[in-house]
């Protein structure tokens, strides 16, 4: 670290390494490529570590008549077997502590794969073998497996919500034209490449340390304490990094952490649980699948006058995050469109399947897919280009700008953004070219679509919109940074370090990024809702500013200059006429008995939400984007390729354009996978049959669009006072993948001369594309559904 | 995309095939065959009880091979995969376990010049072999050109697939140079081209859930450009 700054360098002659808005590489880059980055399974195992395996139920819904675990206990290497009876505290790992999500099923099994017990053995192999030896006697109960069955029973896991704007019923009656339909939207498995994992190390008294791959250390801490019946303060949860989270480690790590903590406290030995991939997929929640019924009123210009939508979701056996997820679906059922009159209602249905959970976008994507279907229907009904229907319905900037939840859209840039993309991507000319291609090719059909994204940023659970950070400066001038967010690849630690480097005007290399731990920053929020850098960046900035203020005050007094003559610059700390090194100032401050440690705190301003009324301002701001996708479909097989994708995405004044571009590309790929090849399939017994990458197909390298052009919107700072005017980027780009679904729909529609809305449901697997093509051909022959 | 729908019947076929191949190589209880994925789960009194006699004394075997240039001799349960041998016996945790079933590529290492999924091969099968893991390619202070290119192009997000991607990428370029054809090689009699199409296809066994494919391909293209006359197509 060059620390000998000469005096009298002209100002602004150098720029610090890793300033904000720079494309700084990921803080772990060198460790990722050399295999030195440690994930939980890579931490050196403590002596005597026990390996834990879960015993899973093989029924979707059944009463447990008896469970004989004798053979499990007697199996070689087995040290302990734990069941619900061994839990000293509460047998509940649910996010909301509603007592609907037991760690181990007690009397009733609620889904196929429900954990019944855990076995701890000397080796992983022994634990796996032993877990097979349980004898469970079940009495089958009627199992409700899908949305259709759940609509009949009508049991909800949580209270539904309704949003109302204007008078949808009256407006539908008065509208010149109306139509209605239903779209089915599949769920999604997270398939974080690092599966769930937790390792607990028992300490003195009640203490336990848990290393766990989680997005929400504070909740894991709370759940572990609750299960063990010990104070939160006795539990320390630490996570350096995750091998991917995507929402799948927001609440789903609770089970694994609680289980190993229980084993560790019971045996006095360290314990690790890393489920096999197949078990991970069976045990953990997924993105909710939805069926959305819509009714829309519109005019011949394609202008939407009223929308009435019902969002039925398969939530699984417990609430988990289904309440806020289905709420967020409603918050995005307008996407970028002003409906004028709207009624949006949710139906969070209980089923005997795994409890669905957070997944990047958190219900928002499903809402948006439904909105885009509505627009598509109107386009087919009016014969207009879908892009023109989209544009005519975009929110205004000064009027036509109130959402169904009564928040006024104040930062709308979707119009100019889409105009720019339309021109850059050459949308109109390509559309002509594609029509010509389709006319000339009997079997291969191309499709093109441009879809926009408007995504609300902030947790809709208002208390989560707070963050904390902790900064220590040591006397050698090195800086230790900690904050409440977790690193899962999104580059949060890099961005927060950039913010701190910028405050002190020191090179980023001086800042030590450390593992997230409940022992340093308490009561943190999940790293979710794309909020990581927004809230933790601001908290860290506030901590840095506290320290700076102390140092300025000290330096002014110590060197006898006015406070405004002290400044942190890239050359060093200016104190009057002289420039000192950061280290010199810090050292002097220590000698002057100035505290060099500070916490920082931030809470998101302006937001409020009244769920009962369905009104308020749940979001501080919106992130925007749009994508154009072009596909080629083989109409004989339904197979397709994504030929080209052009994306323009809004990150405000990006904190780190390189990282943000990666998020946009990765988010798009994941969204595309969700809507195309990723299909979850349960059999009639409620068994998930797509529980490995052999059967559950996430996009591979070869599925990436052949031509993939991604740009960030330039010169578009956030109108809100976010951290350096940047915008959150974790979730919004996922919904750019909707363009692929609509491009496929466009290609499919060509077989019926674009006169019938294909109503292509998601995921649009090649099978679904093929059956839709066949249906359209049959309809075209009879004239059914023609516009 | 395409060919994504595994009907129940064909999936079973695949599973049976996998079990059979393990049986061929190990003779008895393959580690893979024990997976509780699939339809295993806790046995029930009414359902079929899997024949899973606990093995009380695992058969130990000795294997000597070179790992990252260093001679190693291990005494392991003969069912130990190369992946577990690396991670658990040699404490080389750079190689990751994503699925343990040969389906994700996270565990890719280079053995005798060829890339393999180390979770799909037994350690004892590599007597006398030469294994290179991500740790053996380079260190943070002395990065292999492929590692340096991954840093330059941000060829990762969470980093979990990265060691496998890098080992695969290094071997892929060698494969193309050696004239080994792939599914997308048009003319099987001519040498395959160092092209983006070839790289995309050959890298499709290494899943990246973060979707860093663009940057991974950029990194590979750069290295290919340095090592070969023609750049990526
Ligand atoms: S861990 Fe070996 S291929 Fe997935
Ligand atoms: S970088 Fe996360 S899986 Fe590839």
Description:
- The complex is a heterodimer of chains A (787) and B (233).
- With 787 residues, chain A is of the alpha+beta class.
- Helix content of chain A is 29%, strand content 23%.
- Chain A has a domain at 29-37 and 466-599: Aldehyde Oxidoreductase, domain 4 (2-Layer Sandwich), CATH 3.30.365.10.
- Chain A contains 19 helices and 29 strands.
- In chain A, α9 runs parallel beside α10 (364-382), α10 crosses α11 and α14 packs parallel to α15.
- The termini of chain A are far apart.
- Mean pLDDT of chain A is 96; it is low at 1-10.
- Chain B is of the alpha+beta class.
- Chain B folds into two domains: 60-136, Ubiquitin-like (UB roll) (Roll), CATH 3.10.20.30; 138-227, DNA polymerase, domain 1.
- Chain B has helices at residues 8-26, 82-89, 134-137, 145-152, 162-177, 196-202, 213-227; strands spanning 60-67, 70-77, 108-111, 114-117, 130-132.
- In chain B, strands 2-1-5-3-4 form a five-stranded mixed β-sheet, with helices on both faces.
- At the A-B interface, α1, β1, α3, β6 and α8 of A face α1, α3, α4, α5 and α6 of B.
Structure at a glance:
The complex is a heterodimer of chains A (787) and B (233). Chain A is an alpha+beta fold and 787 residues long. Helices cover 29% and strands 23% of the residues of chain A.
Question: What is the topology?
Answer:
The complex is a heterodimer of chains A (787) and B (233).
Chain A: H1 29-34, E1 50-56, E2 62-68, H2 70-74, E3 78-82, E4 108-109, E5 115-121, H3 124-131, E6 135-140, H4 147-153, E7 162-165, H5 168-174, E8 177-185, E9 198-202, E10 208-212, H6 217-228, E11 235-239, H7 253-267, E12 271-273, H8 277-283, E13 290-298, E14 304-316, H9 322-331, E15 342-350, H10 364-382, H11 386-393, H12 414-424, H13 427-440, E16 444-457, E17 466-473, E18 479-483, H14 492-504, E19 511-513, E20 516-517, H15 532-559, E21 566-569, E22 572-575, E23 578-580, H16 582-591, E24 597-603, E25 608-610, E26 615-617, E27 621-634, E28 640-649, H17 657-675, E29 707-712, H18 738-749, H19 766-782
Chain B: H1 8-26, E1 60-67, E2 70-77, H2 82-89, E3 108-111, E4 114-117, E5 130-132, H3 134-137, H4 145-152, H5 162-177, H6 196-202, H7 213-227
Helix pairs in contact in B: 4-7
The structure holds FE2/S2 (inorganic) cluster (2 copies).
One FE2/S2 (inorganic) cluster sits between chains B (156-162, 208-210, 212) and A (193, 244, 489).
């Amino acid at each position: 670290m060059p620390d000998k700054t000469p005096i009298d360098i002209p100002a602004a002659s150098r720029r610090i390494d890793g300033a904000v808005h720079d494309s700084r590489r990921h803080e772990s880059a060198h460790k990722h490529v050399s295999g030195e980055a440690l994930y939980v399974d890579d931490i050196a195992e403590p002596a005597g570590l026990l390996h834990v395996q879960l015993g899973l139920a093989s029924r979707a819904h059944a009463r447990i008549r008896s469970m004989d675990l004798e053979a499990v206990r007697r199996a070689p290497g087995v040290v302990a077997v734990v069941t619900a009876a061994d839990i000293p505290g509460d047998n509940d790992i649910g996010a909301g502590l509603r007592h609907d999500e037991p760690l181990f099923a007690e009397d009733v099994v609620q889904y196929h794969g429900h954990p019944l017990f855990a076995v701890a053995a000397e080796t992983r192999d022994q634990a796996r073998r032993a877990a097979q030896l349980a004898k469970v006697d079940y009495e089958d109960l009627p199992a409700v497996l899908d949305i259709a069955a759940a609509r009949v029973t009508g049991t909800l896991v949580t209270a539904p919500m309704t949003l109302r704007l204007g008078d949808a019923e009256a407006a539908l009656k008065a509208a010149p034209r109306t139509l209605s339909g239903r779209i089915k939207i599949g769920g999604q498995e997270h398939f974080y490449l690092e599966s769930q994992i937790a390792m607990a190390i028992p300490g003195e008294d009640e203490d336990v340390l848990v290393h766990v791959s989680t997005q929400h250390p504070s909740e894991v801490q709370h759940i572990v304490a609750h299960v063990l019946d010990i104070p939160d303060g006795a539990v320390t949860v630490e996570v350096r990094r995750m091998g991917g989270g995507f929402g799948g480690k927001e609440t789903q790590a609770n089970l694994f952490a609680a289980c190993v903590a229980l084993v560790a406290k019971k045996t006095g030995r360290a314990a690790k649980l890393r489920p096999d991939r197949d078990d991970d997929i069976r045990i953990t929640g997924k993105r909710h699948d939805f069926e959305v019924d819509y009714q829309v009123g519109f005019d011949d210009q394609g202008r939407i006058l009223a929308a009435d939508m019902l969002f039925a979701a398969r939530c699984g056996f417990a609430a988990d995050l289904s309440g806020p997820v289905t709420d967020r679906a409603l918050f995005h059922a307008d996407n970028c469109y002003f409906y004028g009159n709207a009624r949006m209602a949710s139906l969070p249905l209980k089923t005997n399947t795994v409890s669905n959970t957070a997944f990047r976008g958190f219900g928002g994507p499903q809402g948006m897919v439904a909105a885009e279907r509505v627009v598509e229907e109107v386009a087919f009904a009016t014969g207009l280009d879908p892009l023109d229907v989209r544009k005519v319905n975009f929110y205004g900037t000064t009027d036509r700008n109130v959402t169904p939840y009564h928040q006024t859209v104040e930062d709308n840039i979707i119009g100019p953004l889409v105009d720019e993309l339309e021109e850059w991507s050459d949308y109109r000319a390509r559309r002509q070219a594609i029509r010509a291609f389709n006319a000339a090719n009997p079997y291969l059909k191309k499709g093109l679509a441009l879809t926009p994204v408007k995504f609300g940023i902030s947790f809709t659970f208002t208390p989560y919109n707070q963050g904390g950070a902790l900064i220590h400066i040591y006397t050698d001038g090195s800086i230790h940074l900690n904050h409440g967010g977790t690193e899962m690849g999104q580059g949060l630690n890099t961005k927060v370090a950039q913010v701190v480097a910028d405050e002190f005007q020191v090179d980023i290399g001086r800042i030590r990024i450390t593992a997230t731990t409940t022992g340093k920053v308490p009561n943190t929020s999940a790293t979710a809702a794309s909020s990581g850098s927004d809230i933790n960046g601001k908290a860290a900035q506030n901590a840095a500013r506290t320290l700076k203020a102390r140092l300025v005050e000290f330096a002014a007094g110590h060197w006898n200059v006015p406070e405004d003559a002290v400044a942190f610059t890239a050359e060093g700390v200016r104190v009057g006429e002289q420039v000192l090194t950061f280290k010199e100032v810090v050292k002097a401050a220590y000698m002057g008995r100035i505290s060099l440690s500070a916490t920082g705190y931030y809470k998101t301003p302006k937001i409020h939400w009244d769920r009962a009324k369905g009104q308020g301002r749940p979001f501080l701001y919106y992130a925007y984007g749009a994508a154009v996708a072009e596909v080629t479909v083989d109409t004989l097989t339904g197979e397709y390729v994504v030929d080209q994708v052009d994306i323009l995405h809004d990150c405000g004044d990006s904190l780190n354009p390189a990282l943000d571009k990666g998020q946009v590309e990765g988010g798009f790929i994941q969204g595309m996978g969700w809507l195309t090849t990723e299909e979850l399939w349960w059999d009639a017994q409620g068994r998930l049959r797509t529980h490995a990458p052999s059967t559950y197909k996430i996009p591979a390298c070869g599925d990436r669009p052949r031509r993939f052009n991604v740009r960030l919107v330039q010169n578009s700072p956030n109108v809100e006072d976010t951290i350096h005017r940047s915008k959150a980027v974790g979730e919004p780009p996922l919904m750019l993948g909707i363009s692929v679904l609509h491009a496929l729909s466009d290609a499919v529609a060509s077989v019926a001369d674009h006169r019938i809305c294909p109503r292509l449901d998601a995921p649009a697997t090649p099978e679904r594309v093929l059956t839709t093509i066949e249906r359209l051909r049959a309809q075209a022959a009879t004239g059914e559904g023609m516009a | 995309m395409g060919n994504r729908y595994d009907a129940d019947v064909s999936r079973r076929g695949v599973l049976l095939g996998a079990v059979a191949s393990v049986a061929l190589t190990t003779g008895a209880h393959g580690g893979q065959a024990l997976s509780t994925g699939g339809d295993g789960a806790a046995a029930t009194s009414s359902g079929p009880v899997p024949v899973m006699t606990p093995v009380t004394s695992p058969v130990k075997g000795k294997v000597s091979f070179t790992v990252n240039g260093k001679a190693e001799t291990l005494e392991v349960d003969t069912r130990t995969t190369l992946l577990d041998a690396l991670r658990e016996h040699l404490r080389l945790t750079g190689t990751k376990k994503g699925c343990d079933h040969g389906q994700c590529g996270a565990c890719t290492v280079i053995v005798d010049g060829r890339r393999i999924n180390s979770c799909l091969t037994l350690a004892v099968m590599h007597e006398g072999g030469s294994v290179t893991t991500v740790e053996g390619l380079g260190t943070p202070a002395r990065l292999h050109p492929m590692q340096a290119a991954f840093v330059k192009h941000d060829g990762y997000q969470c980093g979990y697939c990265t060691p496998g991607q890098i080992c695969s990428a290094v071997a892929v370029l060698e494969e193309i140079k050696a004239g080994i054809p792939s599914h997308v090689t048009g003319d099987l009699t001519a040498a395959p081209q160092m092209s983006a199409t070839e790289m995309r296809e050959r890298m499709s066994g290494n899943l990246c859930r973060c979707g860093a494919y663009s940057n991974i391909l950029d990194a590979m293209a750069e290295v290919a450009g340095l090592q070969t006359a023609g750049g990526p197509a």
